[in-house]
Each structure stands twice: as C-alpha cells, then as structure tokens.
UniProtKB/TrEMBL annotation:
It comes from the Bacteria. The keyword Nuclease applies. This is DNA/RNA non-specific endonuclease. Residues 254-357 form the Type VII secretion system protein EssD-like domain. Keywords: Endonuclease, Hydrolase, Nuclease.
Length: 388
C-alpha cells in the first residue's frame, strides 16, 4: 500500500484507514520501521515482528492486521510463516482465491525472479542480479532488492542466495500444484517455468558446493514434474513415415515414436525450419545447435517440435552416424525402422537422449533391435551395426 510522506511520529500508521486513533505507539513504531519511501514492506515488518516475544508479536499483529489491505495482510502472514511463526490471521473471509488472475501473475513474477537468481549463479557479471533487484523494487520488496544487491558481490552473493533457495522450492511446488489442477494456469505459467528450466540447464549442479546443490535439487525435481503436466500427443505423417510426438504443457517435445519407411535425401529446409533451429539453439549453452530429434531427411520441416538444444559435436558425429544407419537400412535393404526417442531431464535442454530402435526387413520381420543412451555433450560414440 502507499502512504503520503509526512513528518512526525506515526506517519505510516496515521494514513491507514481508521488507524490513527486505534494503534498503540508500539504498533506505529513497527509500521514506521517497515516503511520506506512512503511504502510499507510486509517482509520488513515480518522480520521485525519475528524477533519479538510471542505475546508481544501477537498483540501487535492483532492491532495492525485489520488495517492492512488484503494483499499486504496475506504477504505478512506468508513472511511470518517462512520465519517459523505461523499465525491464524488469514485475511478477510472473502479474500480472493489463490488461483485468481492477479495471484497467478504474481506467481509468474516470482518464478521469473527465481530464474534470474539461478542465472546469477553462473553469470560472472551482475546483470542477472541487477535485473532481479529492479523487479523486487517495482514490487515493493525492499528486502528482496537488498539481497539481490548483495548478490552482485561474488561469494557473499552466493551465500545470500542460499538463504532464499528453501523458499524458492516452496514457490515452485505451489506453481506445479496449481498447474496440475488447472490447465489454463499451466499454460499461463509455462513461459516462466520454461525460462526457469532454461536457467537450470546452464547450471552444472555437480560442480556446486554441497549446500547449494542440496538446496537446488528439490527445485529441479519440481521443474521436472511440471514438464510432465498436460502431456499430450500429436500425430504426423510425412510421405510414408509416421511420427507420434509427445509434448508437455509448455509445448516442448519430450518423446518421439516413429516408423520410417522413406528417406528424403537432399530435402530443402523452409525458412521457418531455419528460424526454428536458431530458436532451439538459443535455449541451449555454448557449442549447442538446433538439433533434430528425428533427422530432417526423414520428417521434413516439422519446426521446433522436432528440435532441441544439442551439443554440436554430438549432433555432427554420433547422432549423425545413427541416422546414417537408419537411412542405409531403408535405402539398401528396402526395410523400415521403428524408433522411440526420449529426451531425459530438463525439457528446455535435455541432459540425455535415450534411443531405442528396431530394424524391420522388407517382409515385415524384425531383424535386430538396439538401445543407446547418449549424454547431450561432446565425446559421444556410436558404432554402426550394419553398412560400416
């Protein structure tokens, strides 16, 4: 809420509706201490109350809470609970439901800020933390802005972030629960969750200190849960080839099952296909390209649903050899190939590619089957089984 700046004791309290006469001096002082540039910061007020004896804290809450707007009151309760002081002050009985548009919008901003903090773990410049601080200031979260400012200092910043990661896991868990219950919310939170997963795709968890890794792993687990929400399939036929794409709520392909009977050697790529490759590569890390899940020579111009950020060396060596094996089997043996490809881990940039395929002869008999799990990184090897 916003207060007009005036001089004298109790300037914040005097501008709460009906509060000037009702609040004690202690309540006025608590509000004054939590007011900066004329705005009340519920997180700062919660921090003050959390350090007071239980009886005094409850008395001040009983005085202050009825005069706060619903949003500030709810934020105060949330902040106190996060500090180990749950309260039964739950806001007016007719408070809007948690799934209201405004709350979902706030949750999307929360997820964006989390993504910026995660990006700040690997960003050697203060850009991510500076952007996060600006969002905090715009939302009236002075404590959050302060932590983001501290985070611009290496080492000290990482320690400050560590104190926030536990609450981040709760926020992401809330987003997943709401998305599971309501497809519309899943779609609305999808872009923010995608950016957060993208940030995680750049973080080498095994290289972080144990304390930070343990704080981040529950968040990654929940992000993987979100990737499985709203899963649906799309069928495609390209010439004599058929594909079943499995996609999550964010529209990202997480699995592709196909029967390949035909090879379109030298097929040209549309301008949309080239654009999609650039978009897929941009979601990745250094040395990534927009790699096809199933080679373009088998399923032409499918766009982003047939792509993921793929290490360039892996794309041009092991994965290409695998596709050459399929193409030679179809062209030289007149057979077909049944394939099942699953992208494992972070759906924004998969960690692994699990490939299963069967070689079918011209009479429809299965001749052989293979399974291989590739890491999405350089140094992968594939030994061709036929046509070496």
């Amino acid at each position: 809420m916003t207060f007009n700046a005036i001089t004298g004791a109790g300037r914040a309290a005097s501008h709460l509706p009906g509060a000037a006469q009702a609040l004690s001096s202690g309540a006025r002082q608590a509000l004054d201490g939590a007011t900066q540039l004329g705005a009340l910061n519920p997180a700062r007020l919660a921090e003050d109350l959390a350090h007071r004896p239980a009886a005094e804290r409850q008395q001040l809450l009983a005085e202050i809470a009825p005069h706060l707007p619903e949003r500030d009151q709810a934020r105060l309760v949330q902040e106190l609970g996060a500090r180990g002081h749950p309260t039964d002050i739950a806001g007016p009985p007719q408070a809007k439901p948690k799934t209201a548009d405004a709350d979902v919008g706030e949750l999307a901003l929360d997820l964006t800020q989390i993504g910026l903090d995660i990006a700040g773990l690997i960003d050697p410049t203060p850009i991510s933390d500076g952007a996060n601080g600006l969002i905090s200031l715009a939302r009236g979260d002075w404590l959050g802005a302060g932590i983001s400012a501290v985070s611009m200092v290496p080492y000290i910043g990482d320690a400050a972030k560590l104190g926030k990661l536990g609450r981040y896991a709760q926020t992401v868990a809330k987003a997943v629960d709401l998305a599971k219950a309501n497809p519309a919310i899943a779609q609305r939170l999808g872009p923010a969750m995608e950016k957060l997963r993208e940030a995680f795709g750049h973080v080498a968890l095994d290289k972080l200190p144990q304390s930070m890794r343990q704080a981040l792993e529950p968040i990654k687990t929940k992000l993987d849960d979100f990737a499985r929400i709203g899963v649906h399939t799309v069928q495609t036929t390209v010439g004599k080839n058929t594909v079943e794409w499995t996609q999550n709520a964010a529209g990202e392909t997480i699995r592709a099952k196909a029967t390949l009977n035909e090879v379109f050697s030298g097929a040209s790529r549309s301008s949309k296909e080239a654009t999609a490759q650039g978009q897929a590569a941009a979601r990745g890390i250094d040395d990534d390209v927009g790699g096809h899940i199933i080679g373009h020579r088998f399923v032409k111009n499918q766009g982003i649903r047939n792509m993921f950020p793929q290490n360039m060396q892996f794309n041009n060596s092991a994965y290409r050899k695998l596709e050459n094996e399929w193409a030679d089997w179809i062209n030289k043996r007149g057979g077909s190939v049944d394939i099942d490809i699953q992208l494992v881990g972070n759906s924004a940039r998969p960690d692994k590619v699990q490939v299963k395929y069967s070689l079918i002869d011209a009479d429809g008999n299965r001749v052989d089957k293979f399974a291989k799990i590739f890491e999405n990184q350089a140094g992968q090897v594939y030994d061709r089984q036929y046509f070496r």
